[in-house]
Amino acid sequence: MKAVRLLASLLSFSVLSFGGVSVSAPSNGSSSGSPVRFVASASSSHPIAAMSVYVDNKVAYKVNAGSMDTMVSIGSGSHYVVVQAWDTSGVVLKAAPMTVTVSGGTGAPPNSTTYSNVNQMTGWQWCDTCAGAGGSGPTAKISMEQNIGNPALDGQSAQFDMAGSKPYSSAIWWKQLGANANASNFVYDLYFYVKNSSAVQALEFDANQSLNGKKYIFGTQCDALGHHAWDVWDTANARWVQTGIACSAPAAYSWNHLTLEFQRVNGQAKFVSVTLNGSKSYINKVFWPESINAQELNVAFQMDGNSSNTPYSTWLDKVNFTVW
Predict the structure, then answer these.
(1) Residue 249 and residue 222: Cα distance in Å, rounded?
(2) How far apart are CA 15 and CA 75, in angstroms?
(3) pLDDT tens digits along 258-299
(4) Do 139 and 269 belong together in one domain?
């Protein structure tokens, strides 16, 4: 009798319903470039609490609303896709599963803007102490040199150097790109190269947008010598949040291709995905911004030193930042 009551309780908490979710786009069996537009809505006898897009059984997008009209970045190939919703009573509603084929990998719509070869642009800024905890970390000897022929993919890489005597020193470099308040989707795509993997405590790749009194920080770091995973920045609480996505020390004397995808959605900074050397993982974490009086859009790169602050260099090449 207790088992029957327990089963009834579980069923009442989460009831699966095939229906109640209408998907206008994409259609089953369709082909598309990336990102893929998803238009869907849900209805139930109770208010809809949230909707999600599942790609190959992993959450690729989530919104706390009863409808969506969004662009979702999906890797190339054939994918199993389900749009799902939940109402406030715990009922789970699903649309019929679909197969969607994506070509061309991560892309952007025709109205996007790409800031190409940012590593070759003039006007980079940098500092050491401001890269540390609370903006007052240890000092370091840092430099940046552009138009490096070797190592390079196109003969014009940028070399970033850090040394010094203070353990766990850090250095950050950033390039302002001018305000772009219309942009809410961001793809940070680049190649990086190191010669001394054991010196890399962490490598951080950031994008920042400030508008309407708010600053959205898309801070993403590979904690190579710590917990060997990707972290993302919770701006409102000024802390790193672990994603559980593995990231070990980069291989020495080898170019690594990194693509980070972000969104500014519903007043929050959303970390969509990280793709390292062709392996894509969805992050799907959102955080509130901080208050600021500025209008800006920039990309940044940070190097963190190990316990001995072993000197090392990192080279960046083909640094592109696409927004729309």
Answers:
(1) 8
(2) 32
(3) 999 999 999 999 999 999 998 889 999 999 999 999 999 999
(4) yes
- Kindly state whether residues 29 and 94 are assigned to the same domain: yes
DSSP assignment letter at 97 = P
Structure confidence by residue, pLDDT tens digits, 112-161: 899 999 999 999 999 999 998 888 899 999 999 999 999 999 999 999 99
Place of tokens 């991560």: 106
Bridge-based pairing state of the strands 67-72 and 290-291: unpaired
Q: DSSP per residue over 160-217, as a string?
A: EEEE-SSTT-EEEEEEE----TT--EEEEEEEEEES-GGGEEEEEEEEEEEETTEEEE
119 CB-side CA count, 13 A: 28
Look up residue 279 and give its two tokens.
């392996």
Contact residues for 170 (Cβ-Cβ < 8 A; gap 6+): 128, 131, 132, 137, 138, 140, 162, 302, 303, 304, 305
Q: What is d(CA 65, CA 151) in angstroms, rounded to the nearest whole number?
A: 48
Range of the domain at 71: 2-103
CA dihedral 197, 229, 129, 254 (to 10 degrees): 30
- If asked whether residues 151 and 21 sit together in one domain, one would say no
Distance CA 241, CA 269 (A): 13
Strand partners, 280: 275
C-alpha–C-alpha distance, residues 86 and 65, integer Å: 10
- Which CATH number does the domain housing residue 99 bear? 2.60.40.10
250 DSSP 8-state letter = P
d(CA 124, CA 120): 10
Residues in the chain predicted with pLDDT less than 70, given as ranges, are 1-19, 104-107
Is the domain of 117 the same as that of 96? no
Residues 163 and 288 in one domain: yes
